[in-house]
Amino acid sequence: MSYVEVAKLADVADGSALRVAVEGVDIAVVHTNGEVYAIEDTCSHAEVSLAEGEIDKCFIECWLHGSRFDLRTGSPTGPPAVEPVPTYPVRIEGDGPDRVILVSVTGEESH
């Protein structure tokens, strides 16, 4: 599995998301409660950016129709979305302000 650097950890404040592209895949990198997650940036219900949604602990809510997805598994928590969204492995490397976020879209998805 190969990892690609997508951002500095300092660039994604806790409680926020950043939209990035990794090898042609749009991904929402989400920093919440001190953890970083990578989830495909397209809602499985309405095909809009999840990075623009609201983050609540380990969940992200699509801003258009309110579908919520578990950041750990990509599973929707209820309608209107019924299909999961792919999630991807994340690594944090480095020390202090130079810590970077790396994401892998090769190999198997996390869920």
Describe the structure in brief.
The chain has strands at residues 4-8, 16-22, 25-32, 35-40, 54-56, 59-61, 68-70, 87-88, 90-93, 100-103.
Description of the molecule:
By secondary structure, the chain is mostly beta strands. It has a domain of 76 residues: Rieske Iron-sulfur Protein. Helices cover 0% and strands 41% of the residues. The chain is built from no helices and ten strands. The two termini are 15 Å apart.
Q: Helices and strands in order, then pairings?
A:
Blueprint: E1 4-8, E2 16-22, E3 25-32, E4 35-40, E5 54-56, E6 59-61, E7 68-70, E8 87-88, E9 90-93, E10 100-103
Antiparallel strand pairs: 1-10, 2-3, 3-4, 4-8, 5-6, 6-7, 9-10
Largest sheet: 4 strands, antiparallel
Q: Helices and strands: which structural class?
A: mainly beta
CATH H level, superfamily name of the domain at 13-88: Rieske [2Fe-2S] iron-sulphur domain
CATH class of the domain at 13-88: Mainly Beta
CATH fold topology of the domain at 13-88: Rieske Iron-sulfur Protein
List the main descriptive attributes of the protein structure presented here.
111 residues, mainly beta, Rieske Iron-sulfur Protein, 3-stranded antiparallel sheet, 0% helix, 41% strand
